[in-house]
Structures are given as C-alpha cells and as structure tokens.
Design a protein that fits this description.
Layout (H helix, E strand, L loop, with lengths): L8 E2 L15 H13 L5 E3 L11 H15 L5 E4 L5 H14 L3 E5 L8 H14 L4 E5 L1 H4 L5 H7 L5 E6 L4 H11 L6 E4 L5 H7 L3 E2 L8 H13 L2 H18 L8 H12 L16 H25 L1
Parallel strand pairs: 1-8, 2-3, 3-4, 4-5, 5-6, 6-7
Helix pairs in contact: 1-2, 2-3, 4-6, 8-9, 9-10, 10-12, 11-12
Amino acid sequence: MSFPKPFRGIIPPMITPLNPDFSLDEKSLELVIENLISGGVHGVFILGTTGEFASVSSKEKKKLIQLTCQKVDHRIPVLVGITDCSFQESLDLAYCAKEAGADILVATSPFYMNIGQEELTYYFSRLADDVDLPLYLYNIPSHTGIKIDLETVKILADHPNIIGIKDSSGDQKYFESLCDTFREYPEFTVLVGPEEILVETMNMGGHGGVTGGANLFPKLYVKLFESIEYQDKERIKILNATVKFLSENLYNHGTYQSNYLKGLKASMYFEGLCQGILALPLVAFNETEKEELKGKYKAVKEVVSKNLADLN
C-alpha cells in the first residue's frame, strides 16, 4: 500500500506473541493486531527489539511476516525488521516481506563483529541495493555496540532506497541533529524509539514514535501524537504525564536488565492479549513478580482510561 513521505504517526514495535515452545501464538497475534488497528495506529513494525527479533527462529519470523501482512490486509502499512548478523539471512527476510505484501524494511547495524562507520556505510548501501522494498535505518547503539554517526546517516540518505531512520539511542542532541539535517530532505522520515521523549523529539521536528506501550494502550499514544501535532498544550501535558506514569510503573518493575519487555508482555497478558511468554534467553516474571506488577498495571489502566475519557 502507499504510505506518506515522511511517514508521520505512531508505529508500534509489535510484540511477538509466543507459545510455551516459542512457536508463534497465532490466536494472540490476531488479538494484538486488531487492538493496534482499532486504537488508530498509523502503521505496525514487526521484528524489532520489542518483537525479540534476535531470539525468534527464522521459521517463526517468516510465519510472523506472512500472517501479519495477511491479517493487517493493507489497512495500515507494515514495517518489517530484517536485522541479522548474516547478510543473506537479512535478504531472505526482505524477500519474504516483499512476497507477503509488506511496505517498508527496517535494519539496524549487524552486531557481534567489530565494524566501523566506513564498513557500516558499505553494509547499509549494499543492503539497500539488494532489497526490493524501501529501507529505514535503525540506530540502537545500546544493543548493537555501534552508533550510526550523523555523517554516516547523511551519506546513506542520498541512497534512493533509504528513506528514513528510527533512533532509539535516547540521545536528544543526536536526534535534534538528525532533525536539523533532514529538514532539507522533505521525504526522509525521522522517528523516535523511547516514548518518554516523544513530545520533546516531535517538537524538534521528528515525525512520530515507535512506541512500545502502544501495544497495550494504542489510543493513548495516538491521542498524544495528535495533541503534539495540534500543539494542544493542556492535552499534551495530561497525556504525556500518563505515558510517563505507565513507563515508571510497568517498565521499571524488578531489577532485571529486561524489565521493559517483561513488564510489557506481562501487562499484555493481564489484558488478555497474549500469553506473556518471552523467548530465551529472556524469561517472563515469576508468579510473585507478576502478582506484584498486577496492582501497578491496574493503577495504570485506571489512569489511562480516566484521562482518555476526560479528554474525549
């Protein structure tokens, strides 16, 4: 399907719902997709960090791509993560995405191997040459071990098939530099990952967010995006405070490095959207931890529901 350039809006990084044997939970997949679309999101991004792309098997990735595109059925654009340490595996996923009817590919830097900016530029250029769908870069140095430098992004943006970037570095100065640079590229999309800084980054000139919490409460993030677009300061204040309340309670429960994903999937289990299973090496909260989180989840849901109702 056609999509705007730049692509503005809320594009959730969809979770990958799993069965206990780590196969794709197809029943929950449909629930998650319908929850997102009914919430008014502008697109959906599968096989990102929140989608546990590094831990899901190639077989289940391809099944996820095919079923997501089938169930979305061109109602909103589908973005597919194709990141892999193997270049050929990335091409295979890109081919699967094209055949399934996806719209945009997303790739971050290959991890494990030590590479520099020159090699990174060549890698992304070659990838963009060899795939049939347009490509977004994905900057997440906390997970890949390498930042996509601003100068590298500028070089890559001249490639006709590289049309945007998702930045999950959390570095607001870097993001502002991206926005300043790409004002001269009116069709180049600049999206932010961390939802806690959606307001600040959109006010810099960003085009929207790849917000994990939208898996759970999509309307909250869509309403916040719309409020920023219209610069409705009172609504921004209320909705942004709600997003931060969600983040503080659901993403920071426990002492694990993986608290964000544990908290999100557990909350989606409480909401009846998935089984709450994470792919190894990650594991879900134990029963005691879930029970402790449930009270926080209920408080967050109450605040979200009240604030959305009050603003209607």
